[in-house]
Design goal:
InterPro entries: Secre_tail. This protein is mainly β and 337 residues long. The chain is built from two helices and 22 strands. β2 and β3 form a beta hairpin.
Length: 337
Amino acid sequence: MKHVTRSIFGGRLLMLSLLATFPLSTLRAQTAASYTAAATGSSLAAYNLLQPTTTAAVRTAGTADEGYYNTLPIGFTFRFVGANYTTVSASTNGWLTLGQSITAATPTNSLATGTPRPIIAPLWDDISFGTAATPADPALDGDFFYQTTGVAGSRIFTAEWRNVRWTPAAAGPVTSVMVRLFEGTNVVQFQYAAGTSGASGSTRSASVGLAGAAGDYLAASDLSATATFSSTTEASIGSRATSGRIFTFTPPGTPSATRGSVAKEGLQLAPNPAQGQVQVLGAEPGAVVSVFDLQGRLARRYSAASTLDLRGLAPGMYVLAAQVAGLPARTARLAIE
């Protein structure tokens, strides 16, 4: 009997040890609806194209109107809605899935019931990189690009739908959109730029947001700076975003949002190298950001850690430090071009 009692007691100790090692939030199943979403962007924010030398992705099947790109390497392990992934597959119609192949471009959008799941959708609608009715026009038609940047521990995977027609009947590029996946924090970010053509040619009705299992989603109300996000209502979006609009989705229990982990986790910067502005992820709410040159001299200070205006700073290497009173600073190196 004593032996059984010790076994039960030992099991309780083991469980307490596991709970102490892993925060309760990480033991619960994550859902798309549990992500925290925020809309940012201003006249200072710039849409940063992938490097001009980046090669467009090769379509697995289909056309520039209805096609898809399967099993693209992320370059690191990315955790989304409670599961780990190392690849994504993207549709020409402004959405991607993780860890599996796509068999149809699926222009008909539904974050609530659409498949295959999970889904990350910066602009899920009937969009196109050109029009099937005319020959390809390099001056007007866009393409899909992807790349991974940064160093191990703070890498960023970016997928870009550049110069898309929304809808395919549009006279020219209506918008460009990006998805960024951040290593470590597992943050998802959307970024938008307005194109040269405002006309669509027909009705727009996009879904924008994240989706997990069937019925689990988080959808944006519109593409404005005052957008709200709902897990019960999926909006039909018809107006494009202004250049510089950014939506950031942060998973629950992410180390960057936990005060006890501040000393362990660094900042993440996008883009890096940067020109004109940089987005700061991983800072404590209300943190003051200081920018130092490599000689340790203060170059600039910002009262809030979000979108930093870098104009006026000379090209070169810098160190950013974000700090809240009483907590260790979090740092990152930044290259300004």
